[in-house]
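My current task is to audit a protein record that another person submitted. I need someone to confirm that the token line plausibly describes how this chain folds. Take the sequence as given and treat only the tokens as open to question. This is what I was given:
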Amino acid sequence: MAQKGKPDKEVDALLDELLKGHRPEDILNEGGLVQDLTKRLVERALEGEMTEHLGYEKHAPEGRDRGNSRNGKSRKRIRTGEAEHEIEVPRDRDGSFEPTLVPKGRRRLPGFDDKVIALYARGMTTREIQGGLQEIYGVEVSPSLISAVTDSVLEDVKAWQARPLDAVYPIVYLDAIHVKMRSSGHVQTTAVYVALAINLEGQKELLGLWVGETEGAKFWLSVLTELKNRGVQDILIAAVDGLKGFPEAIESVYPRTQVQLCIVHMVRNSLRYVSWKERKAVARDLRAIYAAATLEAAEEALDAFSAQWDDRFPTIARSWRANWVHLTPYFDYPPELRKVIYTTNAIESINAQLRKVTKKRGAFPTLDSVRKVMYLAMTRASARWSRPVKDWPAALNHLAVVFEGRVPL
């Protein structure tokens, strides 16, 4: 073996011998040296697998009367991503040989599927992937092949969606985004439901995704029931948007869960009634409510807001008062934990990633196509989650006091 850091003279000599008589443009081109070497390397590897399978070298006398032997070869076309090759695969007489490098039924070497799936995860459409592979590698890939490759993800989606979950989650964010679906020649809006948790270690954890026709408390009830069936026995705090009936759906499955309506959603909904000219002033006065130091101070700020703006926008203060019980639980917690609780920013960032990969797709043809894209996008986004919530040990201790006996020690 060559020493580390020094060129392997035998390999260099072999390469020099191989390159003799080859023009530079013939090395990488179709049918060139690299393709020929790939084909021959695969075939040699398959011959090695056959030798190991039978237990003797080709033409070796010890192979006589062993009950199984080589039985010619069959031709097979395989794709490496950059090129297509026709190779010869050895066969044995009793048909028990199962190649590892190029398994039966597979026509692509390892690595090709990963490239296609990586492009799909970035939000590229089937047509864009097809064009990209053609432009970069000179490979013609059919849309049906791309679909077949990405369909392999569906088994991962099913296993991930059915996996057991922890018994207790301190915080769970529940939200939905909407995508376009094509059905019977018509395009309709479909809701994709996402559940994101902060687990006992302070790490973000995606619990699942569900595809339904429209967002509604009834569907959320089925989502929560599934979470319970997968092992979630208790949720301390559920952060949700202002969907009507949502708190009641949560309380029917998790009666001890504290429901916190998302302040960001509340502010956004409030500003819908305000002209662009006055939005800055209204947003400032709303901030005085939710950024108050205490619950009493927040109530005073709401009274002040009402006195200032009720003549112009009477529905805003009225809406805040109607939802006050579920808007203000975060005041029970220290400042560093409040922002984690009162806003669904954590799940909003996930939704932003999902919208990024769906916005250029137009309408999805099937529910499975939605699941594939969403799962791959979420997997890619969650790969960057490495740090726990800031000051999580102190936050967990505070939660253990507030929810006495419900936080595992």
